[in-house]
Inverse folding.
């Protein structure tokens, strides 16, 4: 592993921006200088330049009670007004906000004026349903414009949304509804995926069911968008059609200002325990950094660019770079409902040609999958409109980076690799395409106003050429403000490792990623250092999948690891001990099939293990901790490493013999 990394770090290809690009770039090197001179003044300037404040703020950062930061705290604003009304007032109502394309090929074009009107109606409809400032609304929708409308309608009235990815199961949805005590669920009958309608309303029905095994939830209403036209069950009084309630609502709605620290949303993400964390983001600081990064990292020219972020709104990338960043900046964007290979493997490239997409933001997993299917598909289409390419979600290997630049970007389009997390809210580390000489595989430098570092276990800076733990060394505007309902876990997870005694305001944020600084001091993110996996850019917890496995009656014990996978980055591999009776009753293949379905039901299809090994032992230390490192060796087909700390040193032999 480290040999591989060392050779990567000797990467000496550099791609400086072309003179043309730099001449028209909106970023200039003085951004870095201004930020370095006075970080807080820099962010205050950005907040004032990029957003409309109902009441201007006078204080930029309150860090007196770390790690609970308050940014722009005495200012007030309305997030939806910033994303909508002000663009219409500025005369840009006719600009397209969203070019939407459904998977079956149906389309909608929505201008800023139309989107504003739709959000006003939805805001009135939510208020009529009793949703008030501070109430939580769960959103479980496919990639249709109503997802953005629903989020912005919540923001407009000061309600807090919790978007749950449509691929999560009813069980996962229920636990998120319960944790946030949501009053309303906004969903659809179904959505299109891989040429078929997948049901969503059914999962909501199961998630809010009140029966012998499930207590009543706090949900009062379920608002349903008609999309899939599939049959749905209906509970009178509880269930309402979006087209009845929203279409009939008034299009007059005044956007009231809220405090900058008003909660905007909760987004659940996997941690190192079985229970997902509800990451809390607030308004003014979050929107500032989303708008800033969207503008400068992608060199946005809102009058001419067509931006396309391929992420689903169910993930943070969809929050920050489908909804809040692009709309705050008055950008025109493409939103696509379906999968990249439906109905043909060139669908994405066809869409880029059709809509003249200029900026594409996607994940390395997608790029690697396209590499596998072959360059002949992108080469059938005219991709010459593209001028910036972005990558996010997992490390991008130099080979994929070069393919992206050459095959998709015609050998001339800058590629920016952006590092950030659900917790950071917006991009933290990335090249700026008009300024930075890009370097394949490296995420490079913190954006202006952000400071990160790499520390060793004792908190010392490792310096160039070395690896360690990635930290953020100063608070940033879009930082998470907490874990919903669990301030202790917030402190323990992120802020305690490098807590400088006697100087609590020097606490550093622990990202949970391993990273190295190369000889130029540029950053290479290597992946998680905790029990979190990254499968196709989606975060999954080993513990969460282990809990799902042991909840099945045939399972006695389970251990899950993320094994390196050529396409998806990592893949879920499970090692399971069956209960004695089951071990006789079922073949290993049968047990594997049953358990794969079970995990998909418990968490969602994204968590379904690629491989489940039925074993009779698991490697444990004397204190009973499972040594996942050794299981990873097995899953990746390597020689098993040092086993001397095992309670029973023969165990790995038993496992490997059995799997031969
Ligand atoms: O391990 C890092 C990886 O994705 C994690 C964050 O996942 P999530 O909160 O789901 O947000 C994904 C989208 C921002 C990080 O801890 N990661 C994200 N971007 C990169 C990355 N790893 C390497 N390079 C990146 N550019």
């Amino acid at each position: 592993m480290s040999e591989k990394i060392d050779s990567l770090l000797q990467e000496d290809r550099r791609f400086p921006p072309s003179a043309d690009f730099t001449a028209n770039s909106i970023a200039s090197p003085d951004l870095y200088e201004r930020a370095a001179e006075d970080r807080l003044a820099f962010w205050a300037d950005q907040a004032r330049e990029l957003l409309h404040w109902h009441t201007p703020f006078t204080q930029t950062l309150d860090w007196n009670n770390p790690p609970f930061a308050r940014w722009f705290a005495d200012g007030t604003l309305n997030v939806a007004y910033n994303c909508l009304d002000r663009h219409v007032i500025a005369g840009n109502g006719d600009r397209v906000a969203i070019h939407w394309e459904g998977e079956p090929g149906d389309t909608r074009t929505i201008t800023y004026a139309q989107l504003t009107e739709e959000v006003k109606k939805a805001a009135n409809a939510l208020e009529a349903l009793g949703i008030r400032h501070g109430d939580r609304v769960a959103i479980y929708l496919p990639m249709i414009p109503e997802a953005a409308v629903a989020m912005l309608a919540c923001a407009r009235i000061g309600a807090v949304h919790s978007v749950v990815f449509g691929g999560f199961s009813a069980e996962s949805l229920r636990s998120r509804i319960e944790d946030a005590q949501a009053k309303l669920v906004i969903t659809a009958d179904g959505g299109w995926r891989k040429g078929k309608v997948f049901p969503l309303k059914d999962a909501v029905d199961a998630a809010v069911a009140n029966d012998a095994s499930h207590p009543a939830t706090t949900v009062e209403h379920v608002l349903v968008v008609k999309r899939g036209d599939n049959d749905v069950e209906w509970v009178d009084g509880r269930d309402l059609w979006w087209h009845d309630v929203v279409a009939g609502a008034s299009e007059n709605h005044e956007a009231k200002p809220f405090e900058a620290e008003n909660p905007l949303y909760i987004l659940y993400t996997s941690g190192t325990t079985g229970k997902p964390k509800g990451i809390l983001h607030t308004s003014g600081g979050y929107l500032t950094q989303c708008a800033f990064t969207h503008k400068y990292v992608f060199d946005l020219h809102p009058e001419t660019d067509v931006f396309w972020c391929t992420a689903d709104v169910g993930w943070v990338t969809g929050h920050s770079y489908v909804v809040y960043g692009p709309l705050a900046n008055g950008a025109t964007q493409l939103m696509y409902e379906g999968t990249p290979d439906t109905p043909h493997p060139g669908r994405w490239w066809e869409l880029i040609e059709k809509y003249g997409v200029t900026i594409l933001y996607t994940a390395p997993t997608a790029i690697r999958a396209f590499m596998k299917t072959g360059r002949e598909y992108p080469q059938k289409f005219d991709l010459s409109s593209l001028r910036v390419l972005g990558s996010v979600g997992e490390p991008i290997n130099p080979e994929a980076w070069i393919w992206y630049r050459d095959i998709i970007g015609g050998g001339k389009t800058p590629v920016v690799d952006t590092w950030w997390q659900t917790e950071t809210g917006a991009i933290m580390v990335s090249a700026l395409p008009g300024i930075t000489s890009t370097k394949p595989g490296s995420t490079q430098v913190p954006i202006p106003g952000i400071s990160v570092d790499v520390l060793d276990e004792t908190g010392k800076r490792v310096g160039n050429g070395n690896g360690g733990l990635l930290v953020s060394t100063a608070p940033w505007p879009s930082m998470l403000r907490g874990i919903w309902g669990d301030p202790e876990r917030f402190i323990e997870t992120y802020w305690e490792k490098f807590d400088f005694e006697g100087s609590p305001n020097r606490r550093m944020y622990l990202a949970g990623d391993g990273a190295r600084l190369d000889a130029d001091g540029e950053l290479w993110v290597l992946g998680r250092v905790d029990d979190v996996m990254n499968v196709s850019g989606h975060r999954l917890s080993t513990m969460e999948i282990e809990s799902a496995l042991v909840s099945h009656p045939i399972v006695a014990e389970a251990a899950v690891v993320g094994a390196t996978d050529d396409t998806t980055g990592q893949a879920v591999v499970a090692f399971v001990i069956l209960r004695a009776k089951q071990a006789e009753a079922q073949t290993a293949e049968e047990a594997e099939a049953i358990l794969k379905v079970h995990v998909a039901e418990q968490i969602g299809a994204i968590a379904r293990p690629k491989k489940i090994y039925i074993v009779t032992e698991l490697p444990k230390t004397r204190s009973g901790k499972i040594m996942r490192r050794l299981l990873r060796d097995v899953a990746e087909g390597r020689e098993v490493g040092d086993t001397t700390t095992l309670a029973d040193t023969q165990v790995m032999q038993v496992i490997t013999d059995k799997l031969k």
Observations:
- Residues 485 and 626 are 30 Å apart (CA to CA).
- The domain at 38-339 is CATH 3.40.50.12780 (Rossmann fold).
